[in-house]
Amino acid sequence: MARKLPMYMAIAEAISQEMERDSSVFVMGEDIGAYGGIFGATTGLLDKFGPDRVKDTPISESAFIGGALGAASKGMRPIVELMFVDFFGVTMDQIYNHIAKVTYMSNGNVKVPVVIMTAIGAGYSDAAQHSQTLYGIFAHVPGLKVVVPSNSYDAKGLMISAIRDDNPVMYFFHKGLQGLGWMPSPEEAAVEVPEEPYTIPFGKAKIVREGNDVSVVTASRMVYEALWAAEELEKDGVNVEVIDLRTLVPLDKETILNSVAKTGRLLVVDEDYLSYGLTGEIIALVAENALSSLKAPPRRIAVPDVPLPYSRPLEKFVLPSKEKIVKLVKEMM
Amino acid sequence: MPDISEQTLLSLYKTMFKIRYYEETLGKIYYEGKSPIFDISAGPIPGELHLSSGQESSAVGVCVHLKPEDAVVGTHRIHHFAIAKGVDLKAMTAEIFGKRTGLSAGKGGHMHLFDPKVNFSCSGIVGASFPQAVGVGIAARQQGADYVAVAVGGEGAANQGTFHESLNLAALWKLPVIFVIEDNSWAVSVPKDKTTSLSRNSERAKAYGIPGVYVDGKDVVAVYEVAKEAVERARNGEGPSLIEVKVYRLRGHFEGDAQVYRPKEDLEQAMANDPVKYLENQILSRNLQSEQELKELQNDIIAEIDEIIEYARQSEYPEPQEALENVFIGGD
Ligand SMILES: Cc1ncc(C[n+]2csc(CCOP(=O)(O)OP(=O)(O)O)c2C)c(N)n1
Ligand SMILES: [Mg+2]
């Protein structure tokens, strides 16, 4: 049976069901026990599984995230949470030199079934060290799968796939999609979620709105900005196709290329920084494979290479938004 | 009572009361625009807000020994140190309100306060303060100067690798650094005894061959004494010290924290050890001030803070496109 769930509950349910199914799954992180995760992603797990399988850690990220690799090497399937993606600098070596590379360096002889989950996103004045999106850094490093759900149905299915995957998965939930009550979140992100466990394959983007005039490729919370922009553009007779990538690694190139072949126009919208990131990657993909189908130069909207400022008008100025999408799409037509 | 002049005691009290009133005032303003439904992005102070009520003594007892050229490198919960260090409070408050008259013209916010005039800085990354304070110590050495650095961290931060690396380096190079660990018993929802293999972080000083002291911050004078010695040692080239101050978190981890994880007795115990009340009682019982005099003194401080808050409220927001400025010195 399906019922509407906010994303944070869908994630917690996915973890809970996998913990029931597989005794090698356990969770470590800061404030994931009694608190249930600062963004709710481990709600109820401590009560259900106890402190041996739901471990509140010291603020020692190198130890418990590097520790996830060690535990995985002995057959465990750890899920580790570190609240905000902004904090990963303190443990990056364990991730980008070890967790990401051990499988390759061992020629496939060592598997690393680790899920690392964290929150991304801005929009509520949490400033430069608590508002970044940064998934591009992890997608840049070979060996990490990168998951970016935009709604509770995808969040559950992708989490179960992540836990069952024999590779390290970076799982990024957006604070502004979790449906926490105290943080604004679009109602559309809380959708029907089946009670029973299910998986969603990685590398399958979703066309969340069909259209013929322009392809807007995006992910996570920006999916909604794109959809709202599409509604408005509809009034002007512009038909926008919106693609929710769902996973950045692996990337569903086919869906993007097919869409651009149909519409002839590409706009990439990303809440991460502009340069050397997702937007450039998607545009390069299209330029390499479908240049001749483009009727207009591809365009992109992202955070314009400045840290996220605190003050409301400043933050609003740098974040991608429905308004910016509408304006740019009109220019492209 | 140790030898501390009545005048010093009163001045410690003034700063402690100022901090308390400031924090409690921000704690009220924070909820403006956030009710009936709490929305973290709304109101005159959006985003996270970590207040220091109950922890005043560590800041005041330490900073009273510092000069403007001494550095304080702090954490996310740091208004008390900022005030005690003499950060421009008008500009700091305007920053917290996101205004152009703020320390960083609205770019930083409450976790990212920078006042180079008094060598104050802080950040929202737990454990980031220690190496940076060590660096200030290195500069003092390079420059042959006698300024010192204070690194502030919570008891939670003492489990971060940076803490241990920094203690070792500071000890190895005999740097003028004072490590101040504020033990408020909690790292968000996780109690100290669930995260720390020793009951006192001050014990960890032994591993690096430096002095380590645990002091109860209920009594600011005790902190004052311990800090005096540590600052003198650092200034005299005798190397770093570690001070762990037992402080009392009187509010949630951040505002809006329902603290469901926190036993009622824990909060009651914190309230029973309130350092501002404790000092107030000392002052009254020793007749340093009459109740009337104390009230007047408090009213002066209240008026000063209220005026600062009003200034911050009335200040203008920055222009949106200012967001693009100052990524680099000298432009891109
Ligand atoms: C590297 C890093 N990890 C985690 C966090 C999230 N976080 C912010 S404050 C905090 C607790 C800090 O506890 P403590 O050091 O005792 O300071 P307190 O909040 O009690 O003053 C945590 C886990 C962070 N900001 N940075
Ligand atoms: Mg603490």
Question: Which structural traits does this protein have?
Answer:
heterodimer, A: alpha/beta, Rossmann fold, five-stranded mixed β-sheet, 36% helix, globular, B: alpha/beta, six-stranded parallel β-sheet, two-stranded antiparallel sheet, 10 helices, 8 strands, binds magnesium ion
What does this structure look like?
- The complex is a heterodimer of chains A (333) and B (332).
- With 333 residues, chain A is of the alpha/beta class.
- Chain A folds into two domains: 2-194, 3-Layer(aba) Sandwich (Rossmann fold); 206-332, Rossmann fold (3-Layer(aba) Sandwich).
- Chain A has helices spanning 7-21, 45-49, 61-73, 92-99, 102-105, 135-140, 152-164, 222-235, 253-263, 278-290, 312-318, 322-332, and strands at residues 2-4, 25-29, 54-56, 77-84, 115-120, 145-147, 169-174, 192-194, 206-209, 214-218, 240-244, 247-249, 266-273, 299-303.
- The longest helix of chain A is centred in the first third of the chain and has 15 residues, at 7-21.
- The radius of gyration of chain A is 19 Å and the shape is globular.
- The relative contact order of chain B is 0.16.
- At the A-B interface, helix 3 and helix 11 of A face loops of B.
- The complex binds thiamine diphosphate and magnesium ion.
- The site of magnesium ion has 6 residues of chain B, from strand 5.
